[in-house]
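Cross-posting from the chemistry board since nobody answered there.

I work mostly on the small-molecule side, so proteins are not my area. We synthesized copper (II) ion and want a rough idea of how it might sit in this target. Sequence and SMILES are below. Is it possible to get a predicted 3D structure of the two together?
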Amino acid sequence: MADNLNIHQIAVVPEQVTNIFKPLATPSESIYQISLLTLAICGVIFLIVGGLLVYTIIRFRTRSNDEQSEPPQIYGSNQIELAWTVFPILIVFVLILVTARTISDVQNATHPPDSLKVTVVGHQWWWEIRYPDLGIVTANELHVPVSDPAKPRRTVLKLQSADVAHSYWVPQLSGKVDLIPNRDNYMWFDPKQTGLYLGNCAEYCGTQHAHMLIRVIVHQQEEFDRWVLEQQKPAVDNREVTAGRKVFLSTSCVNCHTISGTIAGGKFGPDLTHLMSRDTLGAGAIKNTPNLLRAWVHDPQKLKEGCLMPDMQLSQQELDLIVAYLSTLK
Ligand SMILES: [Cu+2]
Protein backbone atom coordinates (compact mmCIF):
# COMPACT_ATOMS: atom_id res chain seq x y z
CA MET A 1 0.00 0.00 0.00
CA ALA A 2 2.83 2.35 0.84
CA ASP A 3 3.89 2.66 -2.76
CA ASN A 4 0.71 3.96 -4.32
CA LEU A 5 -0.61 6.32 -1.69
CA ASN A 6 -2.44 9.32 -2.99
CA ILE A 7 -2.56 12.33 -0.72
CA HIS A 8 -6.01 13.30 -2.00
CA GLN A 9 -7.48 9.99 -0.93
CA ILE A 10 -6.11 10.11 2.56
CA ALA A 11 -6.09 13.79 3.49
CA VAL A 12 -8.05 14.20 6.68
CA VAL A 13 -11.55 15.44 5.95
CA PRO A 14 -12.67 18.10 8.41
CA GLU A 15 -15.44 16.64 10.53
CA GLN A 16 -16.53 20.03 11.69
CA VAL A 17 -16.92 23.50 10.28
CA THR A 18 -14.40 26.30 10.25
CA ASN A 19 -17.16 28.87 10.18
CA ILE A 20 -16.82 32.48 11.31
CA PHE A 21 -20.61 32.63 11.64
CA LYS A 22 -20.69 29.95 14.35
CA PRO A 23 -18.55 31.50 17.10
CA LEU A 24 -18.05 29.42 20.26
CA ALA A 25 -15.76 31.64 22.36
CA THR A 26 -15.76 35.26 23.54
CA PRO A 27 -13.21 36.72 21.06
CA SER A 28 -14.86 35.05 18.06
CA GLU A 29 -18.29 36.19 19.31
CA SER A 30 -17.13 39.83 19.46
CA ILE A 31 -15.74 39.52 15.94
CA TYR A 32 -18.96 37.91 14.74
CA GLN A 33 -21.09 40.70 16.22
CA ILE A 34 -18.98 43.46 14.73
CA SER A 35 -19.07 41.77 11.32
CA LEU A 36 -22.86 41.59 11.54
CA LEU A 37 -23.00 45.32 12.34
CA THR A 38 -20.73 46.13 9.39
CA LEU A 39 -22.78 43.88 7.13
CA ALA A 40 -26.01 45.54 8.29
CA ILE A 41 -24.68 49.07 7.66
CA CYS A 42 -23.38 48.05 4.23
CA GLY A 43 -26.69 46.30 3.51
CA VAL A 44 -28.69 49.46 4.27
CA ILE A 45 -26.37 51.57 2.06
CA PHE A 46 -26.71 49.00 -0.71
CA LEU A 47 -30.50 49.03 -0.49
CA ILE A 48 -30.71 52.86 -0.56
CA VAL A 49 -28.26 53.29 -3.45
CA GLY A 50 -29.58 50.28 -5.40
CA GLY A 51 -33.19 51.33 -4.75
CA LEU A 52 -32.59 54.89 -5.99
CA LEU A 53 -30.82 53.52 -9.05
CA VAL A 54 -33.69 51.16 -9.96
CA TYR A 55 -36.25 53.91 -9.28
CA THR A 56 -34.37 56.36 -11.55
CA ILE A 57 -33.98 53.82 -14.34
CA ILE A 58 -37.70 53.09 -14.37
CA ARG A 59 -39.07 56.56 -13.60
CA PHE A 60 -36.88 58.39 -16.18
CA ARG A 61 -36.76 55.81 -18.97
CA THR A 62 -37.30 56.95 -22.58
CA ARG A 63 -40.97 57.09 -23.51
CA SER A 64 -42.52 57.19 -26.97
CA ASN A 65 -43.98 60.67 -26.47
CA ASP A 66 -40.71 62.21 -25.15
CA GLU A 67 -39.59 65.44 -26.76
CA GLN A 68 -36.35 65.01 -28.68
CA SER A 69 -34.56 67.89 -26.86
CA GLU A 70 -32.39 67.34 -23.73
CA PRO A 71 -33.94 68.02 -20.31
CA PRO A 72 -32.58 71.01 -18.32
CA GLN A 73 -28.95 70.35 -17.14
CA ILE A 74 -27.95 71.13 -13.52
CA TYR A 75 -24.36 72.02 -12.60
CA GLY A 76 -23.19 71.74 -8.96
CA SER A 77 -25.28 71.45 -5.81
CA ASN A 78 -23.91 72.37 -2.39
CA GLN A 79 -26.60 70.38 -0.57
CA ILE A 80 -25.90 67.16 -2.44
CA GLU A 81 -22.13 67.49 -2.15
CA LEU A 82 -22.39 68.23 1.56
CA ALA A 83 -24.70 65.23 2.09
CA TRP A 84 -22.49 62.73 0.26
CA THR A 85 -19.45 63.94 2.18
CA VAL A 86 -20.85 64.22 5.70
CA PHE A 87 -22.86 60.96 5.81
CA PRO A 88 -20.01 58.68 4.72
CA ILE A 89 -17.69 60.37 7.23
CA LEU A 90 -20.18 59.75 10.01
CA ILE A 91 -20.62 56.10 9.00
CA VAL A 92 -16.87 55.49 8.81
CA PHE A 93 -16.45 57.18 12.19
CA VAL A 94 -19.01 54.86 13.79
CA LEU A 95 -17.30 51.82 12.23
CA ILE A 96 -13.87 52.96 13.47
CA LEU A 97 -15.13 53.48 17.01
CA VAL A 98 -16.86 50.12 17.40
CA THR A 99 -13.93 48.31 15.76
CA ALA A 100 -11.39 50.01 18.03
CA ARG A 101 -13.49 49.09 21.06
CA THR A 102 -13.72 45.43 20.03
CA ILE A 103 -10.00 45.20 19.29
CA SER A 104 -9.13 46.72 22.63
CA ASP A 105 -11.62 44.45 24.49
CA VAL A 106 -10.01 41.38 22.94
CA GLN A 107 -6.36 42.45 23.03
CA ASN A 108 -6.19 44.20 26.37
CA ALA A 109 -8.21 41.62 28.31
CA THR A 110 -6.66 40.71 31.66
CA HIS A 111 -6.65 37.01 32.33
CA PRO A 112 -7.57 35.25 35.57
CA PRO A 113 -4.56 33.60 37.24
CA ASP A 114 -5.96 30.08 36.70
CA SER A 115 -5.86 30.51 32.90
CA LEU A 116 -4.16 27.68 31.05
CA LYS A 117 -0.90 28.93 29.52
CA VAL A 118 0.31 27.34 26.32
CA THR A 119 3.19 28.26 24.01
CA VAL A 120 2.65 27.54 20.32
CA VAL A 121 5.70 27.68 18.05
CA GLY A 122 5.11 27.73 14.30
CA HIS A 123 7.51 25.64 12.20
CA GLN A 124 7.55 24.93 8.47
CA TRP A 125 5.02 23.10 8.41
CA TRP A 126 3.79 22.01 11.79
CA TRP A 127 2.96 23.43 15.23
CA GLU A 128 5.02 22.81 18.36
CA ILE A 129 2.82 22.96 21.46
CA ARG A 130 4.26 23.45 24.96
CA TYR A 131 2.52 23.64 28.33
CA PRO A 132 5.32 25.24 30.41
CA ASP A 133 3.48 24.91 33.74
CA LEU A 134 2.59 21.28 33.13
CA GLY A 135 5.84 20.07 31.58
CA ILE A 136 4.11 18.80 28.44
CA VAL A 137 5.35 19.04 24.85
CA THR A 138 3.27 17.87 21.91
CA ALA A 139 2.50 18.87 18.33
CA ASN A 140 -0.34 20.02 16.09
CA GLU A 141 -3.21 18.98 18.36
CA LEU A 142 -3.95 21.45 21.14
CA HIS A 143 -5.90 20.07 24.11
CA VAL A 144 -7.68 22.56 26.38
CA PRO A 145 -10.47 22.52 28.98
CA VAL A 146 -13.97 23.81 28.21
CA SER A 147 -15.05 27.11 29.74
CA ASP A 148 -18.17 26.30 31.72
CA PRO A 149 -20.37 29.39 32.43
CA ALA A 150 -20.43 28.19 36.05
CA LYS A 151 -16.65 27.78 36.04
CA PRO A 152 -15.05 29.85 33.28
CA ARG A 153 -11.59 28.77 32.20
CA ARG A 154 -9.45 30.59 29.70
CA THR A 155 -6.62 29.40 27.52
CA VAL A 156 -3.90 31.94 26.74
CA LEU A 157 -1.55 31.16 23.85
CA LYS A 158 1.89 32.67 23.54
CA LEU A 159 2.69 32.55 19.82
CA GLN A 160 6.24 32.30 18.49
CA SER A 161 7.92 31.24 15.27
CA ALA A 162 11.02 29.11 14.67
CA ASP A 163 11.48 30.27 11.08
CA VAL A 164 9.13 32.42 8.98
CA ALA A 165 5.85 34.21 9.66
CA HIS A 166 2.83 31.94 10.28
CA SER A 167 -0.65 32.75 11.52
CA TYR A 168 -2.78 30.83 14.01
CA TRP A 169 -6.45 30.80 13.10
CA VAL A 170 -9.27 28.75 14.55
CA PRO A 171 -12.29 30.73 13.29
CA GLN A 172 -14.75 29.46 15.91
CA LEU A 173 -12.45 30.49 18.77
CA SER A 174 -10.68 33.72 17.85
CA GLY A 175 -9.40 36.01 15.13
CA LYS A 176 -6.10 35.17 13.49
CA VAL A 177 -2.86 36.19 15.17
CA ASP A 178 0.51 36.06 13.41
CA LEU A 179 3.54 34.15 14.68
CA ILE A 180 6.58 36.32 13.99
CA PRO A 181 10.23 35.32 14.53
CA ASN A 182 11.82 37.00 17.60
CA ARG A 183 8.51 38.26 18.91
CA ASP A 184 5.85 37.06 21.35
CA ASN A 185 2.25 37.50 20.28
CA TYR A 186 -0.74 36.47 22.33
CA MET A 187 -4.17 35.00 21.74
CA TRP A 188 -6.84 33.77 24.14
CA PHE A 189 -10.16 31.99 24.08
CA ASP A 190 -12.71 30.40 26.37
CA PRO A 191 -14.37 27.59 24.37
CA LYS A 192 -18.05 27.27 25.30
CA GLN A 193 -18.49 23.71 24.01
CA THR A 194 -16.47 20.54 24.10
CA GLY A 195 -15.42 18.98 20.82
CA LEU A 196 -13.03 19.32 17.92
CA TYR A 197 -12.29 22.76 16.48
CA LEU A 198 -10.41 23.06 13.22
CA GLY A 199 -8.11 25.75 11.94
CA ASN A 200 -5.38 26.50 9.49
CA CYS A 201 -2.16 28.42 9.16
CA ALA A 202 -3.40 31.72 7.73
CA GLU A 203 -0.15 33.26 6.49
CA TYR A 204 1.53 31.73 3.46
CA CYS A 205 4.74 30.15 4.78
CA GLY A 206 6.05 27.92 1.99
CA THR A 207 5.26 24.78 -0.03
CA GLN A 208 3.29 22.85 2.56
CA HIS A 209 1.44 25.83 4.05
CA ALA A 210 -1.87 24.19 3.05
CA HIS A 211 -0.97 21.15 5.19
CA MET A 212 -0.32 23.07 8.36
CA LEU A 213 -3.66 22.33 9.93
CA ILE A 214 -4.73 23.03 13.49
CA ARG A 215 -6.84 20.80 15.69
CA VAL A 216 -8.06 22.09 19.03
CA ILE A 217 -9.67 19.44 21.22
CA VAL A 218 -11.83 20.93 23.95
CA HIS A 219 -12.44 18.61 26.91
CA GLN A 220 -14.49 18.60 30.07
CA GLN A 221 -12.17 19.65 32.89
CA GLU A 222 -11.85 16.10 34.33
CA GLU A 223 -11.16 14.65 30.90
CA PHE A 224 -8.53 17.33 30.31
CA ASP A 225 -6.88 16.53 33.67
CA ARG A 226 -6.70 12.88 32.62
CA TRP A 227 -5.08 13.85 29.31
CA VAL A 228 -2.52 15.92 31.23
CA LEU A 229 -1.66 12.96 33.47
CA GLU A 230 -1.20 10.68 30.42
CA GLN A 231 1.08 13.23 28.72
CA GLN A 232 3.15 13.73 31.86
CA LYS A 233 4.01 10.04 32.04
CA PRO A 234 7.43 9.21 30.64
CA ALA A 235 7.56 7.37 27.32
CA VAL A 236 6.95 3.66 27.82
CA ASP A 237 10.07 1.58 27.85
CA ASN A 238 8.67 -1.64 26.50
CA ARG A 239 11.15 -4.50 26.82
CA GLU A 240 9.60 -6.41 23.91
CA VAL A 241 10.52 -3.76 21.38
CA THR A 242 14.06 -3.14 22.56
CA ALA A 243 15.21 -3.96 19.04
CA GLY A 244 13.07 -1.20 17.52
CA ARG A 245 14.10 1.22 20.21
CA LYS A 246 17.73 0.46 19.49
CA VAL A 247 17.33 1.05 15.77
CA PHE A 248 15.47 4.31 16.37
CA LEU A 249 18.08 5.56 18.81
CA SER A 250 20.95 4.65 16.51
CA THR A 251 19.39 6.40 13.50
CA SER A 252 19.54 10.13 12.85
CA CYS A 253 15.85 10.35 13.88
CA VAL A 254 17.25 11.43 17.26
CA ASN A 255 18.75 14.61 15.80
CA CYS A 256 15.32 15.93 14.89
CA HIS A 257 12.93 14.24 17.33
CA THR A 258 12.61 14.06 21.11
CA ILE A 259 11.41 11.03 23.04
CA SER A 260 11.61 11.94 26.71
CA GLY A 261 13.75 9.67 28.84
CA THR A 262 15.92 8.63 25.88
CA ILE A 263 18.92 10.21 24.17
CA ALA A 264 16.58 11.41 21.42
CA GLY A 265 16.48 15.15 22.08
CA GLY A 266 16.13 16.76 18.65
CA LYS A 267 13.92 19.84 18.44
CA PHE A 268 13.69 20.27 14.68
CA GLY A 269 10.68 17.95 14.30
CA PRO A 270 7.64 17.12 16.46
CA ASP A 271 8.12 15.55 19.90
CA LEU A 272 7.29 11.85 19.57
CA THR A 273 7.05 10.95 23.30
CA HIS A 274 3.29 10.36 23.09
CA LEU A 275 2.96 10.06 19.32
CA MET A 276 0.15 7.52 19.48
CA SER A 277 -2.07 9.88 21.48
CA ARG A 278 -2.43 12.02 18.35
CA ASP A 279 -5.16 11.50 15.74
CA THR A 280 -3.17 12.86 12.82
CA LEU A 281 0.38 13.00 11.47
CA GLY A 282 2.13 15.74 9.52
CA ALA A 283 -0.01 18.57 10.95
CA GLY A 284 -3.32 17.06 9.88
CA ALA A 285 -2.06 15.89 6.47
CA ILE A 286 -2.88 12.25 7.22
CA LYS A 287 -4.64 10.17 9.85
CA ASN A 288 -2.51 8.41 12.43
CA THR A 289 -3.26 4.79 11.44
CA PRO A 290 -0.76 1.89 11.52
CA ASN A 291 -0.52 1.82 7.70
CA LEU A 292 -0.08 5.56 7.30
CA LEU A 293 2.43 5.81 10.15
CA ARG A 294 4.46 3.14 8.39
CA ALA A 295 4.12 4.94 5.07
CA TRP A 296 5.20 8.22 6.70
CA VAL A 297 8.35 6.76 8.27
CA HIS A 298 9.08 4.92 5.01
CA ASP A 299 8.99 8.14 2.98
CA PRO A 300 7.25 11.28 4.26
CA GLN A 301 7.92 12.99 0.92
CA LYS A 302 5.24 10.81 -0.69
CA LEU A 303 2.63 12.06 1.77
CA LYS A 304 3.72 15.66 2.36
CA GLU A 305 5.95 16.59 -0.53
CA GLY A 306 8.69 19.05 0.37
CA CYS A 307 8.22 18.66 4.12
CA LEU A 308 11.38 19.00 6.18
CA MET A 309 11.68 15.33 7.14
CA PRO A 310 13.80 13.57 4.51
CA ASP A 311 13.25 10.10 3.09
CA MET A 312 15.34 8.15 5.62
CA GLN A 313 16.12 5.26 3.22
CA LEU A 314 15.39 2.63 5.86
CA SER A 315 15.56 -1.06 5.03
CA GLN A 316 12.30 -3.04 5.37
CA GLN A 317 13.60 -4.56 8.58
CA GLU A 318 14.58 -1.24 10.13
CA LEU A 319 11.22 0.17 9.08
CA ASP A 320 9.32 -2.70 10.75
CA LEU A 321 11.30 -2.37 13.97
CA ILE A 322 11.05 1.42 14.19
CA VAL A 323 7.32 1.45 13.48
CA ALA A 324 6.78 -1.27 16.10
CA TYR A 325 8.63 0.90 18.60
CA LEU A 326 6.77 4.11 17.65
CA SER A 327 3.45 2.26 18.05
CA THR A 328 4.18 1.80 21.74
CA LEU A 329 4.52 5.54 22.39
CA LYS A 330 1.02 5.90 23.82
CU1 LIG B 1 1.49 28.83 6.77
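Reply from a structural biologist on the board:
Welcome over. Reading the output above for you: The first helix runs from residue 7 to 10. The pocket of copper (II) ion is lined by residues 166, 201, 203-205, 209, 212 (CB under 6 Å). Happy to explain the C-alpha coordinate format if needed.
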